[in-house]
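Practice problem: InsA N-terminal zinc ribbon domain-containing protein
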Amino acid sequence: MNCPKCQSTKIIKYGHTHYGKARFRCQDCGRQFVENPTRQPIDEATRQLIDKLLLERLALAAIARVTGVSERWLQMYVNQKFDNLPKQVEVSPKKRVFRV
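Answer key — structure tokens:
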């Protein structure tokens, strides 16, 4: 078995998940993983749909129901999007027009 992150073979058993599957840990990079994961990452098409629904200002619970993702994952995704936004807003001065 190899680490999915660094491909190292220095793998140790590291307990069990709350689903009862064996958890492993890479001794080189510290990555924790299960051997045959049943839960797959959210695909790019679903992420794009979520982005569109967020622009429509739908409730997170509604977006989670429509897309089939968990509310917890969706909240983490939104928080990550917010963290990636620039923290300072660029404001350009407005042209002043003088009327007589």
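Discussion: The chain is about 35% helix and 15% strand. Students who identified this feature from the tokens alone can consider the problem solved.
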